Amino acid sequence: MKRPIIGLALGSGGARGMAHIGVLSSLEKQGIQVDMIAGSSIGALVGSFYAAGQDVEKMKKLALVFRRKYYADYTLPKIGLLKGNRILQLIHTFTYGKKFEELRMPLAVVACDLETGEKVVFKEGSVSQAVRASISIPGVFVPHEMGGRQLVDGAVVDRIPVSVLKEMGADFIIASDVSRVKKTEKATRLSDVIMQSLDILQNELVRHQTIHADLMIRPRLETFSSSSFTQVQEMIEAGELAADQLAGELKDVIDKWEC
């Protein structure tokens, strides 16, 4: 009995990426085994924790206590508001300092070369360093230096890395899309301006990039901000509900594949 190699693409979306944890929780509950993950920005962060062996229930608890103060290390705003050293240490801790080769499943992390505009896909080396590069939101985090390159957020070039999973050999690709433009009041912080602008600019890009996914999971996140971690529980629940609603469709596909 052969089953498809299942790849999970976890997209960018700032704080709304907490919904990815709910998606993972639902897939586990359904008995769906994810064989590989590709992530961009917050999707890379969540995906790396999971691939490193973090339990989903523990990830939920971590998300619920996650606040700006745990990663905010402000610097003079020359090329970014935050140095990114604190978030790098956090990632290193919760991925157990692992290299890609030591993870429980293949993982790909997407970043962007600021000088060339090239998409950079990490599949080896330090997981925490790669994820730090992938979450480097332009204007918020200082670009991450790796291998002589200045790297910024993977969302700049590939917000939901479905094509990366195709290249890695996935037979069936599930994409978790947490990109939503929130109707917002007047912005009061620079980070709000940056995140809302990125959401608006890349909405159309997402529609084109995800067309080759076999199953799209789109949690209802229109009322949640991409720059606030104050409604984490609700975002996780939205992700779990969205994946639960597609359980029958997913089971049918896998059952037919095995026949």
Description:
The protein is built from nine helices and ten strands. The chain is of the alpha/beta class and 259 residues long. It has one domain: 3-Layer(aba) Sandwich (Cytosolic phospholipase A2 catalytic domain), CATH 3.40.1090. The strands form two sheets. Strands 1, 2, 4, 5, 7, 8, 9 and 10 form an eight-stranded mixed beta sheet that branches. The chain has a two-stranded parallel sheet with strand order 3-6. α2 packs antiparallel against α5.
Task: List its traits.
8-stranded mixed sheet, 39% helix, Putative NTE family protein, alpha/beta, Cytosolic phospholipase A2 catalytic domain, hydrolase, 10 strands, 259 residues, phosphatidylcholine lysophospholipase activity, LysoPLipase_patatin_CS
From the N-terminal CA to the C-terminal CA, the straight-line distance is 7 Å
Structural class: alpha/beta
CATH arch. level architecture: 3-Layer(aba) Sandwich
The proportion of residues in beta strands is 15-25%
Q: How many strands, which pairing sense, and closed or not: the largest β-sheet?
A: 8 strands, mixed
Contiguous uncertain segments of 5+ residues:
none
Please state the CA-atom Rg, rounded to the nearest Å: 17 Å
**CATH fold category name:** Cytosolic phospholipase A2 catalytic domain
Task: Please count the helical segments.
Answer: 9
CATH level-4 homologous superfamily: Cytosolic phospholipase A2 catalytic domain
Given the C-alpha coordinates, what overall shape results? Answer: globular
What order do the SSEs take from the amino end to the carboxyl end, as H and E?
A: EHEHHEHEEHEEEHEHEHH
Number of domains: 1
Pfam families: Patatin (PF01734)
Protein name: Putative NTE family protein
GO molecular function: phosphatidylcholine lysophospholipase activity
Keywords: Hydrolase, Lipid degradation, Lipid metabolism
